[in-house]
Amino acid sequence: MDDASAHQGTARPPVRVIFVGSPGAGKGTQAAKLAEYLGVPRISTGDMLREAIASGTPLGKQADPLMGRGNLVPDDLLIALVRERTTREDCAQGFVLDGFPRTVRQAEGLAQMSDGEVSDWTVFSVEVPREELLRRLSGRRWCPRCQATYHLTSDPPKVDGVCDNDGEPLVQRDDDREEVVARRLQQYAARTEPLIGYYRERADMVEIDGNRPMAAVFADLKKHVGVTA
Ligand code: AP5
Fold first, then answer.
1. Which candidate in 16, 33, 42, 140 is catalytic?
2. Is 177 inside a domain boundary?
3. Which of 58, 69, 91, 211 is the most exposed place for a label (fewest CB within 10 A)?
4. Where are the alpha helices (DSSP H) in the chain?
C-alpha cells in the first residue's frame, strides 16, 4: 500500500492531532505528511491567515500588520476560524492541526469545541535547537500560490527557485526576516510553550526530537498514531 495514503478509506474512530513547536520546528512539513497518511485534512492557521491576507478579507487586514511584526493574531479570531473549519464535512474522520492552538486560551477554546474532552487527542511537541531553527527559517522558500514549503539545502525544489507543483517563483516569507524571526521565537517561548504543560496533563502528549532528517521524524510520528504501514 502507498505509504502516503495508508489510512484512506479505513473505518476507524476520528483521529485528532495537534502539533506544538517553535517556528521552524517542522510542524508544517510533518503535519502535511501525516494528514496525507491518515487521509484527513491538515488545518494550518498560518496558511489560512496568509490566504486571508492575499484575498484582502477583513481578517487578512487585521492579521497582516501583526504577522508582519511576528506577533500573534487575537485568540478570539483564531478560535472562530478553527471552529468553523473543523465543523466542515471533510473533518468527520478527524484532522491534523498545524499552528493551532498557540496559547492556553486557544487550547481552552478548542477543548470547548469537543465538549471539554481532549484525552484521546494526540499532541506532538516537536523540539529543535535554536541554531537549527534559525538555519531552517533563513533557508526556507515558499510558494505564494499553493503555499508549498521548501528549503534551499534540506528540501530543495526540483528546479532551482521554482515550485514543483505549479511553476510559481519561490519567495522568502515576509516573517522569515531575521528581526521578525527573533520576535516570533520570543512569542513562542512566552505564549505557546506553556501548552506543553497544559497538554501533558490532559492529552496523549508525545515529545518528538525534531532535529533529525524529515523521514526519521515522520517514522516516529507514524508509530505514535498507532499505525505501521
Ligand atoms: P505559521 O505559519 O503557523 O508559522 P510558525 O508557527 O511560526 O511555523 P513555521 O511555518 O515558521 O514553521 P514550521 O514549524 O511549520 O516549519 P516548516 O515545516 O515550515 O504562523 C505564522 C504567523 O501567523 C504567526 O507568527 C502568527 O502571527 C500567525 N498565526 C498563525 N497561527 C496562529 C494562531 N493559532 N494564533 C495566533 N496567531 C497565529 O519547516 C521550516 C523549514 O525547515 C522549511 O524550509 C523545511 O523545508 C525545513 N525543514 C523541516 N523539517 C526539517 C528537517 N527535519 N530537517 C531539515 N530541514 C527541515
1. 140
2. no
3. 58
4. 27-38, 45-55, 58-68, 75-86, 104-113, 130-139, 178-187, 194-202, 214-224
- Give me the number of domains the chain comprises: 1
Give me the CATH number covering residue 106: 3.40.50.300
Phi, psi torsion values for 170, nearest 5 degrees? -80, 150
Q: Is residue 142 part of a domain?
A: no
Residue 145 lies in a domain: no
Q: Using CA atoms, how far apart are residues 15 and 187, in angstroms rounded to an integer? A: 29
Amino acid at 169: P
Helix, coil or strand: residue 207: strand
Q: Which of 33, 50, 102, 141 is catalytic?
A: 102
Residue 95 structural domain? 16-129+184-224
The answer to whether 91 and 38 are in contact (CB under 8 A) is: no
Does residue 151 lie in a domain region? no
The residue with cell 507514524 is: 222
Residues with CB under 6 A from ligand 1: 21, 23-29, 45-46, 49, 66-67, 70-73, 78, 99-100, 102, 106, 136, 140, 149-151, 154-155, 175, 184, 213-214, 217
Q: Give pLDDT tens digits for 92-123.
A: 999 999 999 999 999 999 999 887 778 889 99
